[in-house]
Amino acid sequence: DRTADMLGIYSKNIGRKAFIEHILNELDIFYFERPEILIKLTRFRGMIKKDSQEGQGVLLFISHFGPNTGIIPALGNAMPYAQIGLSPTDLIKENNIMDRTRIRSLMIKERLLSNTNTLFLSQETGLRKALNILRTGSSVGIAADGRAGKKFVPARFLGREAYFSEGPFKLAYMAKALIIPVFPIRENNRIILYFHEPVNAGMDQLNRDEYISRAVQNYIRCLEERVYSQPSSYLYFLHLCRVYTREKYNALFRQL
Known about the structure:
The chain has 256 residues and is of the alpha/beta class. The protein has nine helices and nine strands. Helix 2 (35-41) packs across helix 3 and helix 6 runs parallel beside helix 7.
């Protein structure tokens, strides 16, 4: 019927846009040869407000949404900044299903990331250093929807039961840091980086488990709002979740 036809067209348009966005996101890495170009192309919206406690660190939740790699030079230029994550080399070692193009792209990314004014911390060994950085009042970025981790928190996401690593939320609790979700969107040949309101403000009185549960729910609401408003910017990550979780990584959803 007409409704089904409209939904089909809508889905095709999202898929087409997601493919284009993914290619542009991959090409951003070549600007790292001259990071000043990405710095000029990136604009901040709703920057971190100075209503946090003196010396309080900020944990930026950078989801796998939009051009999340292209914003690294601008963040490193704007503030003392460190990024936690799997290195491209580690990612290649842990996956045996990547094609040659993807492997080559990741190796180029690792080489060029050294050109940015950002401290990169290993997801396996850099958490203690990240904790110390946050306690000095600086900023650390982490992918809060990433699939690495040992303990996961169940929650409803996009209408299904999903699992989010408790690691980023536990880090925020231990460092007493603000959690600020950020969402990069490509608009008119620029990258607009939107800073959300803190999702853990006023939660100091909660114990750790209560804090993590509440923070996860608050973060998911922010992420869902962005995904529903611009699904093409998250579609490729959902595709990767289907592919990689068949191998080793923890599944985002209970059922693929």
